[in-house]
């Protein structure tokens, strides 16, 4: 199965949209950095050997298309920080790695729904339980599909195909060897001579465990540079500069923004993903991100924590890292969240962390992650430099409208109908959310010994990971951000329209 293709230089370098019809034809619109072949395409990098197809590998850091018989097979990222978006409508279907691209191409305006934030946040529940339908239009439905590869027939029927598992991990050495080999293959793919330009690795590094461990793994692969934020959300020093320099890296320090002060346009990329916008703190890294493979520590809080209950479905504690997708496409970088490598083997990874060989690397407190500690210490980083206190750097934009300056907030509200603003800021639903959230926090703080406290917490908010994103303001930020980025795509498309409209 072959398809028409058109490179559009004004599109984000890594963005793509594939339009299919009931007649079995396909058309690809794509940015300049998408690698296109006769019957396939890829954006991003994958940990594959020369004889392996993208759909057959366990680790894909990006997305693409392969063909199998009479089926289009879309390959998704091997983590849950990004998704693909499917629009099924009467005349056919379209798939894209950008929700805004999809909406711009088909002229879709999302309806108002205060549950958008909660619907997107359901991905925290893992790859078996998240909500797939985002919203419906007069002609069809928009779906968000994560992790599983997607086989699509010409009439728009689809089948989710689970990615293969990596080999089992029986020891620390086996697990770390798998991390290193996956990173080696992925970075080699990103720098392949067949690309128009190579993508060079860039690590992140802080004083915690996860990104610092990622930097240690990256340095061994020949990575020379890292980025870090000087402070955490609480204002504490969080720069990983000393750690990175111990690893032989040149470390670039950036200030963490306390609020969003510029034009709303600056934060729209992060909010248009629907995932809360908390990764806006990475916006300052933009000058160094183009043409890079960014290695981060997202999901290390679950995978490497000694006392977390393991799961095999990539269930997460929050949405950190999940707001970068649109920003990544425009800035032209690839993203490897290192703890997601082999993460479906979480029970085995947890067993390794508890093994006798790891006892020397356990510190016996609530912030105990022996696997990254051993990786860092064996790389020559002194124990006292990292992992002393849990810190956070993200901006919880979905939770606090005051993290937008008054001018930025006015920009945001000007994008959407006034009635939506009133609904998001002054309704009984908002008051109910505030009261329930307050009650939950009080029970968490003071009710630990009170009989029935956990039941009351669930009765008030259900699953907090979902509830905290369910504020109507989060929905307003998403729609406003999406509409801003949709307008940007419309300008980039320069009048191109779906085949059914031509």
CATH class (first level) name of the largest domain: Alpha Beta
What order do the strands of the largest sheet run in, or round the barrel if closed? 1-3-2-9-8-11-10
Q: State the helical fraction.
A: 25-40%
How far is the first residue's CA from the last residue's CA? 23 Å
The coarse overall form would be globular
Mean pLDDT level: 93
Say what the CATH topology of the largest domain is.
Rossmann fold
Beta fraction of the residues?
15-25%
Count of DSSP E strands?
A: 18
CATH architectural name of the largest domain: 3-Layer(aba) Sandwich
Radius of gyration: 22 Å
Give the low-confidence spans: none
Count the DSSP helices.
17
Report the biggest beta sheet as strand number plus sense, adding barrel if it closes: 7 strands, mixed
Structural class: alpha/beta
Q: What count of domains describes the coordinates? A: 2
């Amino acid at each position: 199965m072959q398809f028409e293709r058109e490179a559009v230089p004004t599109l984000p370098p890594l963005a793509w949209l594939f339009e299919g019809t009931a007649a079995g034809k396909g058309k690809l619109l794509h940015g300049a950095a998408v690698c296109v072949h006769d019957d396939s395409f890829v954006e991003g990098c994958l940990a594959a050997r020369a004889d392996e197809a993208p759909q057959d590998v366990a680790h894909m850091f990006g997305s693409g298309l392969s063909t199998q018989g009479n089926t289009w097979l879309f390959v998704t990222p091997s983590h849950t920080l990004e998704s693909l978006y499917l629009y099924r409508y009467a005349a056919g279907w379209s798939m894209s790695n950008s929700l805004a691209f999809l909406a711009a191409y088909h002229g879709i305006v999302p309806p108002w729904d205060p549950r958008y934030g909660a619907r997107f946040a359901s991905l925290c529940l893992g790859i078996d339980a998240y909500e797939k339908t985002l919203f419906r239009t007069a002609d069809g439905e928009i779906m968000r599909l994560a992790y599983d590869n997607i086989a699509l027939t010409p009439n728009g029927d689809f089948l989710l195909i689970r990615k293969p598992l990596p080999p089992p991990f029986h020891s620390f050495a086996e697990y770390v060897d798998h991390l290193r080999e996956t990173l080696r293959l992925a970075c080699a793919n990103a720098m392949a001579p067949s690309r128009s330009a190579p993508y060079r690795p860039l690590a992140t590094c802080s004083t915690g465990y996860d990104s610092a461990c990622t930097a240690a793994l990256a340095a061994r692969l020949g990575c020379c540079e890292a980025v870090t934020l000087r402070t955490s959300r609480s204002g504490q020093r969080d720069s990983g500069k000393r750690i990175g320099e111990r690893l032989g890296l040149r470390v670039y320090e950036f200030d963490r923004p306390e609020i969003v002060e510029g034009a709303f346009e600056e934060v729209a990329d992060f909010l248009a993903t629907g995932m809360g916008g908390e990764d806006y703190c990475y916006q300052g890294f933009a000058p160094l991100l183009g043409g890079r493979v960014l290695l981060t520590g997202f999901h290390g809080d679950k995978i490497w924590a000694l006392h977390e209950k393991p799961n095999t479905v990539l269930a997460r504690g929050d949405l950190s890292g999940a707001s970068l997708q649109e920003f990544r496409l425009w800035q032209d970088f690839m993203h490897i969240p290192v703890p997601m490598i082999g993460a479906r083997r979480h029970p085995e990874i947890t067993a390794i962390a508890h093994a006798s060989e790891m006892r020397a690397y356990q510190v016996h407190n609530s912030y105990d992650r022996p696997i990254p500690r051993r990786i860092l210490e064996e790389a020559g980083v002194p124990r006292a430099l990292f992992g002393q206190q849990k810190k956070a750097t993200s901006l919880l934009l979905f939770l606090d409208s005051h993290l937008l300056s008054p001018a930025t907030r006015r920009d945001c509200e000007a994008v959407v109908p006034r009635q939506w603003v009133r609904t998001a800021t002054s309704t009984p639903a908002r008051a109910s959310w505030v009261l329930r959230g307050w009650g939950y926090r009080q029970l968490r703080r003071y009710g630990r010994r009170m009989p029935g406290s956990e039941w009351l917490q669930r009765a008030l908010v259900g699953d907090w990971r979902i509830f905290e994103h369910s504020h109507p303001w989060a929905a307003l930020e998403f729609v406003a951000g999406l509409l801003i980025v949709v307008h940007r795509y419309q300008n980039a498309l320069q009048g191109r329209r779906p085949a059914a409209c031509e």
